[in-house]
User: Fold FANCC protein from Sapayoa aenigma.
Amino acid sequence: MAQDTTVSKLNFEYWLDKAIEWGQATTLESQRDVCLHLPQLQEFLHQLYETLKHMGSVVAIQQFPLLGQLLGRLCWNPFVIGYDESQKTLMWCLCCLYSSEPQNPLELKANSWIRSLLCHLLSSSKWESNEAETSPFISTLGYTSADYYCHLVKNMVFSLVTDLKENQFSGLNIQGSVSASLVNAVSIFCVPLITLPDLTPLLETLLLYHGGSSKEILSPEFLEAVNEAFLKKKISLPESAVFSLWLRHLPSLEKATLHLLDQLVSIQMNSLEEVACVIKDSLLPQAASHPAIFRIVNEIFKNALLEADGSSEVLTIIQVFTQLFLQVYQNENKQHKFPLKAYFPYHHQPLVRGLLRRPFELPVTYWSQHLKHISDMLKALVEDTNISSPTELFEIWFLVACFGEWLDIAAEQLLKAAVEPDALLWLLAFYYCPQNENQQRTQTVVEVQAVYNHLMMLFSWTDLSLKDLEAAVHRITGIKQCCNQHLITHLLVNFLLFSSGGHMVAQECIYHITETTDRSKEVHSLLIRIAYRFKCNGEENQRTVKLLNELLQKLTLKI
Assistant:
């Protein structure tokens, strides 16, 4: 063993002398000599890496004090790094010298030097300063300078990707091939080069790489940088790589979700098609097919809604997200589907299944029956069991609120279909007044039913005036019980859209409501939800669609 070490040191000194002699290979004589020695040099570098990878950086420097000088000189020799796998092997050697937890200023300085060398090896732009020295060699090969270094970087990335993939699937001991510390170092060195297009295959491979370690082996700086570049659309990654990023790094998933909310809240919601397009583009609904991601995103949405004091815009975003998630979930291959309980582990499963049924899956004539079933289950949970805390009640309410499409259909069915109103009014009363005690909620239903009965009496009238609707409008503009106002607003908007004479007074009525209250955004959110459902399901006649568009245009200008 001692003899092997001596030979290694003799070899080391020989190649250090050669590196000093060659410099950056600017003369014809040095270029010829480099070319003659490249195969033996590559073999030496491979042996050096095999030696270094079993040492720590401190031991490596103790055994080879001039190692940095040798590697540094070779990294700047264009003939060396252009030959076969020498560039890759130099990178692995540098990674072995990197201190994952530097203990002193010297190790910090060494880390900085190593990072600069890695950037130099991977980034084609770093070569431009040496173009005068390298261009004769490149021209001889038939390349332009830009083409040559572009191919060099691509080959380097391809080689690293191949090594990582082979190591991932070989089943060999990690220490025997590519160690976790080396993968961590490579991820760190990629940080300043994240947006380099040729680096994308390496980013993808690193994000999908897990090795044999139970701990995260990629640096948090790398994961944060990739997420930031993805959110700003500076890089494009396959869905699988993005999902892996969010699964392995919770801060990135949180940032992506908050970024989406900020993006949507800051834009004017003219249609939910636009909202749905932005949400789909974020890849979050697709990623949420994994239960862990779904539960975290759902929790972030829940907190955002609380912070926004129940904002109708935020709630609408959550409802559209839930619909898009359901589309992805229902399109999943049955063999790869997770059970519903994985997404909603703490909720009453029959209620979850009822809410998850999409309206288009059922005949229209069965909608009111399905809504009554949902209402009965919900009422049994809220009133017939002991809800021990406001938190538990909020969790039930939030589950129902996420599936707002059924709530909008409930308000519509009350006016358009021959239904027993009690169950559907109770469902809407719970949605708008979840904090009420049972007795209060019963009183709310009684009060709202009086308005509902009045609207039903007017439903078939073809000649309506605002005065005919005075009682309902006064309930919205005059009473202080907020939840009643929300519920009656919901019913009145549906009445104006679907009744025989509602079209005649719709604009005047909604103008009056929005002028005398602060409900412009609430009514706007309600109208764009209805318009979105019509467009998705191909429902309703042209007159109703035209009225919807006119109302939305005026409200959009107002808010």
About this structure: Residues 145-170 form the longest helix (26 residues). The radius of gyration is 33 Å.
